[in-house]
């Protein structure tokens, strides 16, 4: 009886740990092999408005090294169809040999996710590797876990935040430069107005002196001519 109880308690503890692991690990990591340009598809049941982010890496089999290696000429076409809605296509994107894809489930139900390789290099890279297929595709998907997605993109977000801070700093420098230029323009305008006022005032003074001098000369000449007549 004691052994039976211990086995039952161990089984219950194992079930609890399995459930906890399922909650702690929100991502699905797997790899599979593909032959030629034949698509490889699998089905995933998703609730409505579920965000899915996937990262993939495709490698081709090289007969010279007998290893799977990256090839820049290899391209992967990713398509997602809603099986429950007459295969309504959500995405159909073509990317490099490694990259990322995202989509959101429009409604609840089974979704067919397919990967199709293309653009093989010469030399029979896609002819097969050890009977398993010429292309090895490693897939890592995060389903409905925004925290996992945010942690994955944390570095990119930090880079964007740093760029925004740098742009704000440059804007502040430009504003300070504009304020400085306005102050210099105001000083130059005040100085120009002061100089113009002085020029106008000096011109009026000169005109006044010239007018007084002319009046004195006319008066003096008139008196001189009158005196000449009398004599």
Quick rundown:
The chain has 231 residues and is an alpha+beta fold. It has 3 helices and 9 strands.
Explain the overall architecture.
The protein is an alpha+beta fold and 231 residues long. The chain has 3 helices and 9 strands. Strands 1, 3, 4, 7 and 9 form a 5-stranded antiparallel β-sheet that branches. A 4-stranded antiparallel β-sheet has the order 2-8-5-6, with no helix packed on it. A hairpin with a 4-residue loop joins β3 and β4. The chain is rod-shaped, with a radius of gyration of 44 Å.
Main traits of this protein?
5-stranded antiparallel sheet; rod-shaped; 231 residues; alpha+beta; 3 helices; 31% strand; disordered N terminus; 46% helix; 4-stranded antiparallel sheet
Question: How many runs of DSSP E, i.e. beta strands?
Answer: 9
Structural class based on helices, strands and sheet pairing: alpha+beta
Strand content: 25-35%
Rg from C-alpha positions? 44 Å
Overall pLDDT metric = 77
Distance between the termini: 166 Å
Write down the secondary-structure element order.
Answer: HEEEEEEEEEHH
Continuous helix count: 3
Principal-axis shape equals rod-shaped
Helix content: 40-55%
């Amino acid at each position: 009886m004691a052994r039976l109880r211990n086995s039952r308690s161990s089984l219950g503890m194992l079930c609890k740990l399995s459930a906890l692991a399922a909650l702690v690990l929100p991502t699905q990591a797997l790899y599979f092999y593909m032959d030629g340009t034949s698509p490889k598809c699998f089905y995933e049941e998703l609730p409505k408005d579920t965000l899915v982010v996937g990262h993939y890496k495709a490698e081709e089999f090289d007969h010279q090294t007998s290893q799977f290696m990256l090839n820049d000429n290899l391209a992967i076409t990713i398509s997602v169809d809603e099986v429950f809605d007459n295969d309504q296509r959500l995405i159909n994107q073509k990317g490099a040999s490694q990259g990322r894809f995202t989509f959101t489930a429009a409604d609840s139900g089974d979704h067919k996710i397919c990967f199709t390789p293309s653009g093989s290099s010469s030399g029979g890279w896609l002819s097969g590797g050890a009977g398993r297929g010429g292309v090895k595709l490693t897939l890592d998907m995060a389903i409905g876990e925004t925290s996992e997605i945010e942690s994955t993109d944390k570095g990119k977000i930090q880079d964007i935040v740093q760029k925004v801070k740098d742009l704000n700093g440059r804007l502040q420098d430009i504003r300070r430069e504009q304020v400085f230029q306005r102050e210099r323009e105001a000083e130059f305008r005040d100085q120009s107005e002061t100089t113009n006022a002085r020029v106008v005032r000096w011109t009026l003074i000169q005109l006044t002196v010239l007018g007084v001098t002319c009046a004195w000369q006319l008066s003096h000449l008139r008196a001189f001519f009158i005196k000449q007549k009398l004599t």
